[in-house]
Amino acid sequence: MKKVIVIGASGKIGQAALSGLGHHDIVTASGSGKGADYQVDIGSEESIRELFKQVGSFDAVVNTVGVCEYADFSDMTEQQWMTTVLSKMMGQINLVRIGQEYVNDGGSFSLITGILSSKPIPMAIADATTSGAIDTFVKCVAYELPRGIRVNSINPTVIEEAWDVYGEMMSGFQPVPGSLVGKAFARSVDGFITGEVITVDA
Ligand SMILES: NC(=O)c1ccc[n+]([C@@H]2O[C@H](COP(=O)([O-])OP(=O)(O)OC[C@H]3O[C@@H](n4cnc5c(N)ncnc54)[C@H](OP(=O)(O)O)[C@@H]3O)[C@@H](O)[C@H]2O)c1
């Protein structure tokens, strides 16, 4: 059993991740902190550091948060780009950058990306771009992490539990059960793989 911090546990992908991690000692965190053990803002270095300090000893961080703005490229403002970059890209990079100081030897980080980086759709350029950046980040930073620390990203298609939110913009996509995303997070946390993008597609 490992001590695993699940960030964004109240969300759709957070719930999916939890479905695969039931055999672990889970600590939850989310933006509002409602119904979670801790409140954290992944857009703030101070907040991330405070979370890791408060939890103390832990073996894995599972992040399922990445706030994205959706608009056509020609309409998207710099502020919309920066919202997405500071959350889905820098937020996740900071979890690893700061978390490597606190995670136990042989620990792991599992990040969230998404299928739109390889199967583009209208309105999703910022999500696609930052997902691609994080997939590249995990492949490359895996060589630099100390003390046997591992890092992977989970790159899922839309899950059935979120089809009511994303279905209209994802015509032609086949949703998968969230439990498959849970198993992908479990492979990342429980296995020995590192620097991998774990794709979950139909
Ligand atoms: N849903 C899908 O089918 C799917 C598929 C592939 C990829 N993804 C990606 O997965 C990520 C999450 O999607 P989702 O559908 O699970 O979203 P969601 O249901 O809206 O959940 C978002 C979660 O993020 C937390 N959160 C929001 N802002 C935060 C912050 N600044 N710091 C910490 N936590 C914060 C929320 O906590 P509070 O509610 O407490 O604020 C909530 O737990 C997105 O990047 C999305 O692109 C989703």
UniProtKB/TrEMBL annotation:
GO MF annotation list: oxidoreductase activity
Superkingdom of origin organism: Bacteria
UniProt entry tagged with the keyword Zinc-finger: no
CDD domains the record matches: Lin1944_like_SDR_c
Keyword presence, Transcription: no
Name of one Pfam family that matches: adh_short_C2
Keywords noted in UniProt: Oxidoreductase
Coiled coil: none
Family designation: Belongs to the short-chain dehydrogenases/reductases (SDR) family.
Family annotation (NCBIfam families): PRK07578.1 (NF005754)
The protein's name in its UniProt record: Short-chain dehydrogenase/reductase SDR
